[in-house]
Design brief:
This protein is an alpha+beta fold and about 350 residues long. The chain is built from eight helices and 15 strands. Bound molecules: 2,5-anhydro-1,6-di-O-phosphono-D-glucitol and manganese (II) ion (3 copies). One manganese (II) ion binds next to strand 3.
Length: about 350
């Protein structure tokens, strides 16, 4: 009897997480990660579908209510919708997740009153949302912290946390070095989930034929040096003199590599970081005279992306300290960020050190 020679069944994200849990010594924790990733990937598949059909289902543009988030940004319809999709998906993750902090929520919220609370999730539900109406790449960024038990909510009314819990959370927010998992889903020419649980970085591409993320980029490592720099140069006049000299040297070839670099800037952090992971180079949103803390948010943009980049062999700095060492003082705190290939970032740090 001739068996159909089924191709080796694809290594899906779900199967990958199961395999990691089975092979790991800390299988209970990785089973928790498996449950969380099942919810997060479900949400990202839904957001991918909403983003790709935005023009068809009238989901482009701003919230009709004209709502503004705590960052002072006018919310896009898809900012709010993506946030809701994530909150609903995370109600069903096995009850280990208690609280989420999101760019689109003023304060951290309880995911589920019944949750036992072992983990805190942080999210940028839709990164690069200013690009949505032009059909340009966007993404979802997430990070998972093991919860400090001292913040178990003592009282919850309808998902809102009581003040004691909120102030406890604000006082016990953890640096990026405490992340147990981080990743992003990029909605672009392909939909890619890139993830680390602390043992390297793996990339999965959504196969629309089977509706599963399949392993396409195992063990992602960032090249030690690239030939691309990625900054919003409109802010160049306001940057510090060392950074201005460094970028000028990249343009002229007067740098350690001897090469003149090219510039690529998409304006969606997820897409710019993904390209940097794939091709190498340096990405940044540095401090400038107008924004002494830069623009990107520490908890749900800088920290998860820095964890990924370091796990891929790269570096991530504020310009004066390692991003993963910075202890947040506020949920929506901004932080200067420069990340990418280790040789590129180190060359800039050496210039700062020489000028001290
Ligand atoms: P978000 O859409 O989540 O608010 O993030 C936007 C961020 C980030 O995606 C990107 O790197 C940066 O804003 C671009 O800022 P500029 O347009 O000022 O360059
Ligand atoms: Mn925003
Ligand atoms: Mn963002
Ligand atoms: Mn966002």
């Amino acid at each position: 009897q001739q068996f159909v020679d089924m191709e080796e069944s694809p290594m899906t994200l779900t199967r990958f997480m199961i395999q990691e849990a089975v092979e790991s010594l800390d299988s209970e924790h990785l089973q928790d990660m498996q449950n969380l990733m099942a919810s997060i990937q479900m949400a990202c598949k839904k957001i991918s579908s909403l983003v790709s059909r935005a023009g068809i289902s009238n989901l482009t543009g701003y919230e009709d209510s004209g709502s503004v988030n705590i960052q002072g940004e006018e919310q896009k319809k898809l900012d709010v919708l993506s946030n809701d999709v994530l909150k609903h998906a995370l109600k069903w993750q096995g009850g280990k997740l208690g609280i989420i902090a999101s760019e689109e929520e003023d304060e951290p919220v309880m995911v589920d009153e019944m949750a036992s609370g072992n983990y805190i999730a942080v999210f940028d539900p839709l990164d690069g949302s200013s690009n949505i109406d032009a059909g340009i790449a966007t993404g979802t960024i997430f990070g998972i912290f093991a919860e400090s038990s001292s913040c178990l909510p003592s009282d919850v009314d309808g998902g809102d946390l009581d003040d004691a819990t909120l102030s406890c959370l604000a006082n016990t927010m953890q640096p990026g070095s405490s992340l147990v998992a981080a990743g992003y889903c990029m909605y672009s020419s392909s939909c890619m989930m890139v993830l680390t649980t602390g043992d390297g970085v793996n990339g999965f591409t959504l196969d629309p034929q089977i509706g599963e993320f399949v392993l396409t980029h195992p063990k992602i490592t960032i090249p030690s040096r690239g030939k691309i720099y990625s900054f919003n140069e409109a802010n160049e006049p306001a940057w510090d003199p060392v950074l201005r000299e460094y970028i000028s040297n990249l343009k002229t070839g007067n740098n350690q590599s001897g090469n003149a670099y090219s510039s690529r800037y998409i304006g969606s952090m997820v897409a710019d970081v993904h390209r940097t992971l794939m091709y190498g180079g340096i990405f940044g949103y540095p401090a400038d005279k107008k924004n002494p803390n830069g623009k990107l948010r520490l908890l749900y943009e800088c920290a998860p992306m820095s964890f990924l980049v370091e796990q891929a062999g790269g570096m991530s700095t504020t310009g004066s300290e390692r991003v993963l060492d910075v202890i947040p003082k506020a949920v929506h705190q901004r932080l200067p960020l420069i990340l990418g290939s280790s040789d590129d970032v180190q060359e800039l740090l050496d210039m700062y050190a020489a000028k001290k």
